[in-house]
Amino acid sequence: MIILETKALKKIYGSGSNLVRAVDGIDLSVEEGEFLTVVGSSGSGKTTLLHMMGGLDRPTEGKVFIDHKDIYAMNNNNLTIFRRRKVGFVFQAYNLIPVLNVWENICLPMELDAKAVDKDYVGDLMETLNIYNKRKALPNQLSGGQQQRVAIARALATRPSIILADEPTGNLDSKSSLEVVNLLKQSVKKYHQTLVMITHDESLAQMADRIVRIEDGKIIRQGGAACRPISK
User: Fold this and answer.
1) Residues 67, 183: Cα–Cα separation, whole Å
2) CATH superfamily of this structure's domain 34-55+85-223
3) Cα separation of 72 and 76, whole Å?
4) Which of 121, 110, 171, 109 is nearest to 146 (CA)?
5) What is the pLDDT of residues 47-81, one digit of tens each?
6) Strands 35-39 and 2-13
7) Contacts of 224 by beta carbon, 8 Å cutoff, 6+ apart
């Protein structure tokens, strides 16, 4: 079943000779439970696409559907609530609150949504990501890999249907990168979620069920490990 879909999606900046088509008519469907990676050179439109897929940046043209709902037909307030409940974000910058400990950082989205914290679920999540023993530590007491695991736990804690990860290993060494992606993949499988991840690392991209390659705001190839050319 399709859980995330874009139709004729465009993001255009500027005009005339300064016009930039950051995303240029992308049609993309993501199946429930799928692990999809998006790859492409710097400036290809990867992050812009991800932000529009997650409701962070309204498109110039086109539509985005999550659970068959046209998210940009919503007003800003309803979109914010929907996004908070349906989509979890993991960014290259961990964005942890320095004065909150690990447990508090992970539970923050639920508190912002006035939802009760499921302590058993959060504890299980932290055990899966191997950070439960760090639950009382502040972010500056953690390694980069541990901070990224906290960011992943925070993204998963509200039980969103979709996880969108933008270069989640960009600040990590190769060993930590592989470990983090393995844990992310393991977590979304365990909790029956869908993962879309941007990465510049081809070896990490190969861990996905499907790879989409974009250049100049367009999909140029997609498929499995071989990333076959798209049909003309």
Assistant:
1) 25
2) P-loop containing nucleotide triphosphate hydrolases (3.40.50.300)
3) 9
4) 171
5) 999 999 999 999 999 999 999 999 999 999 999 99
6) unpaired
7) 209, 210, 211
